[in-house]
Write a structure and sequence with these properties.
Helix content is about 20%, strand content about 30%. The chain is α+β, with helices and mostly antiparallel strands. The radius of gyration is 17 Å and the shape is globular.
Length: about 240
């Protein structure tokens, strides 16, 4: 029997428990009640516009050492972490995968994909994939820098996250083959501790923490995307004045 999902404080309907790539349910171990929230969730009342956020990200990316992973047994991939401006407030853009993709069916991710031989860099991969998946033009993106490489656990990828500001107004168009819809979430929402929780999952006999961001009653960011998001939010706090 699958374990019960955590109770949501506002009595919203809990999301379905995610499944592993082989369709077996991941066992959930008790969560530590005194675990502190990760960095990036402690300043949810700190309001910024897009330009203020850009300066903060610029400062953080320029002074932090980046972790780059190079493993021949993993597939190299890159994603774009796009920051958009909606109503004067910064938003972070996610894409929801269709049920027909080979990996991470129906899950939220950042636009991106596998590095191809024609790509001159990880940045080029992320921008190319963003255009192919949601018609985000490369010229509309101001690339700020790279976050740490992130390994996926259920699949075999090393992901390089590319942070970019979307300066222009863009009408995003999901391709319908890989991406079914685009979700833009206010940065202030993502920094609210009330939407975040962790669970300890066991895979191949090894326990590891799994992060969850309940960004709406029906939408949950989790897995590698949540770990990249957590890294991005921590950067926002690290660069705070």
């Amino acid at each position: 029997m699958a374990p019960a999902l955590p109770h949501l404080a506002d009595n919203r309907r809990a999301p379905a428990l995610p499944q592993l790539a082989d369709n077996r349910m991941a066992p959930v171990l008790p969560q530590s009640a005194d675990s502190p929230p990760p960095a990036g969730l402690s300043m949810s009342g700190d309001v910024m516009n897009l330009e203020q956020l850009r300066h903060r990200l610029d400062a953080g990316l320029s002074r932090r050492p980046r972790v780059a992973l190079d493993r021949s047994d993993r597939v190299s991939a890159a994603v774009l972490v796009p920051v958009t401006d909606r109503g004067g407030a910064p938003h972070v853009l996610f894409t929801k995968k269709t049920a027909s993709v080979p990996h991470h069916k129906g899950q939220f991710s950042f636009p991106g994909g596998v590095v191809e031989t024609r790509d001159g860099s990880r940045v080029e991969t992320a921008l190319r994939e963003a255009w192919e998946e949601i018609r985000l033009p490369a010229e509309a993106v101001e690339v700020l820098g790279l976050l740490d490489d992130t390994e996926t656990r259920a699949t075999n990828f090393i992901i390089t996250p590319v942070v970019g500001i979307v300066r222009d107004h863009v009408e995003f168009k999901p391709d319908g083959r890989e991406i079914e819809r685009v979700l833009e979430v206010p940065l202030r929402t993502l920094r609210d501790p009330a939407i975040f929780h962790t669970e300890t999952w066991e895979r191949n006999g090894e326990p590891h923490a799994v992060l969850f961001y309940q960004v709406s009653p029906d939408d949950v960011i989790w897995g590698a995307t949540a770990r990249i998001l957590s890294q991005f939010l921590a950067l926002v706090d690290e660069a705070a004045p």
